[in-house]
Design a protein that fits this description.
This protein is mostly helical. It has nine helices and no strands. α7 packs parallel to α9. The protein is globular. The mean pLDDT is 92.
Length: 208
């Protein structure tokens, strides 16, 4: 087992477990307390002073959390990255599992959105975009790319995740903790996949 692979396995295991713990804590808060402390204040602070232009931007950014964008983005990642293609089925399964877990959690927690009666915890858009972003970050950590390119792509992924979360709140679709729950769940699912692959590589003695 190489030290680098062993370290990667430990890092992604920690990320997966931390994401699960954060998601469980947020879900329990949403289930028992309903609207969590700070939800109203944070949401109001974001939407106060919103303009038609801001809402237009929010609608555009919001599409970044849909499968109409994320599935082509994942296919592009497979096309460009040998690391992503190595276990392409794993990353497809990770996206599917995250979506199923998010849907199940909505019914288990049963907390309504800020507007309407449909369930909102966790945010599906936030779950999906966080899942893709963490998969991308993992793949980049294994690719032989320049540091500048890695930093630029990771920054774009983080900006996309934050932007989609902001848009969901601005569009009155979710409470802030819905967004946080989606980020935590997506991170846990994607990091779980990264943990599995890192452990497999460690068992094989390195990259394969």
């Amino acid at each position: 087992m190489s030290a680098m692979t062993s370290t990667a396995e430990a890092r992604w295991r920690a990320a997966c477990l931390a994401g699960l713990a954060a998601f469980a804590a947020l879900a329990l808060t949403a289930l028992l307390a309903g609207i969590a402390p700070g939800d109203v204040t944070v949401r109001q602070g974001l939407i106060d002073g919103q303009t038609s232009r801001m809402l237009e931007v929010a609608r555009w950014v919001n599409s970044g959390g849909t499968f109409r964008v994320l599935v082509p983005a994942m296919l592009l990642l497979f096309a460009l990255s040998p690391v992503a293609r190595r276990h392409w089925w794993l990353w497809g399964a990770v996206l599917a599992v995250a979506g199923l877990a998010e849907t199940a959690a909505k019914f288990l927690v049963g907390r309504p959105r800020p507007a309407g009666e449909s369930f909102g915890f966790p945010s599906g858009h936030s779950t999906a975009v966080a899942t893709f972003a963490v998969v991308l970050i993992y793949v980049l950590s294994r690719e032989r790319a320049s540091r500048r390119r890695r930093v630029a792509l990771v920054a774009l992924a983080v900006i996309l995740v934050l932007g989609v979360g902001w848009a969901r709140i601005m569009l009155n679709a979710h409470w802030p903790t819905d967004v946080l729950g989606g980020w935590a769940l997506g991170t846990a699912c994607a990091a779980g996949g990264a943990w599995w692959e890192s452990a497999r590589l460690a068992a094989l003695g390195g990259d394969s």
